Amino acid sequence: MPYGPEWKACWKLFTTSQLYATLVRKMAGSSILSVAYGFDVNVVQDSVYTYNAEKALDGLIAASIPGSFLVDYLPWLKYIPSWVPGASLQCQARIWKADMEKLLHGPFAATKSSLIEGGVDPCFVTRCFEQLGDPNSNVERMIEQTSGTIISSRPPAGSTDTTIIALTNFFLAMVKYPEYQKKAQHELDRVIGNDRLPDFSDKSSLPYIQAIVNEVLRWQPVNPLVLAHLSNIQRISNP
């Protein structure tokens, strides 16, 4: 890439990438917690809930990488007790389980308590309670587990990481192709103006913006399209 405005823009983005990543992650995590549990976005950004969510999701990511543990090659190792030397998976799984329980139970319990006191914003959990009335313990557990999947970052319940990936891909595309950014900004200025933010009612009036969104998702898919898999029966293939 020759030295010039595009090079400067890429260098600036590179040198501040850590700041961008932090801000995008906080925005995505706090927004999803607000949607699921009704937390104040401005308050939840640096709360213990975002910390617990990141810890739990880091465990999910590590466990989903094929070949990370010896048990991927020797399945019978999953029956070894955690006190046996070398049983790292069992020890790590216990930590991950505790992190996941904090992720599932903590925010839900806080929202349920606030709902009883009448001090929670509308969200997924409150909507479920309103529609189900006075649910029994099984239904309540289902609401708790379902709301937990909303903030899970791995497929099929992708939200946090997929949002972060899509946004960072968008930033990269706008830096690489500034001419399209100018066209998109022109459409926003023409349709929306400078006195408000766009909302979903403007979607049909912003075809170029919608095309950019679709292209970002097509250009760099946020979900893995080929998952690791294996056959559960022995097969012999003839060359």
Keywords:
heme binding, 10 helices, iron, Cytochrome P450, iron ion binding, oxidoreductase
The percent range for helix content is 55-70%
If helices are DSSP runs of H or I spanning 4 or more residues, what is the number of helices? 10
Strand content: under 5%
- Based on CA atoms alone, the radius of gyration comes out at 23 Å
Output mean pLDDT.
77
Give the topology string: H per helix, E per strand: HHHHHHHHHH
* Distance between the ends: 46 Å
Structural class: mainly alpha
Number of E-state strands: 0
Describe this structure as you would to a colleague.
The protein contains 10 helices and no strands. With 239 residues, it is mostly helical. The chain has a domain of 121 residues. Helix 5 packs across helix 7. It is globular. About 3% of the residues have low confidence.
Set down the secondary structure blueprint.
Layout: H1 5-15, H2 17-37, H3 41-44, H4 48-64, H5 88-117, H6 124-132, H7 137-150, H8 160-176, H9 178-191, H10 207-219
Helix pairs in contact: 2-8, 4-5, 5-7, 6-7, 8-9, 8-10
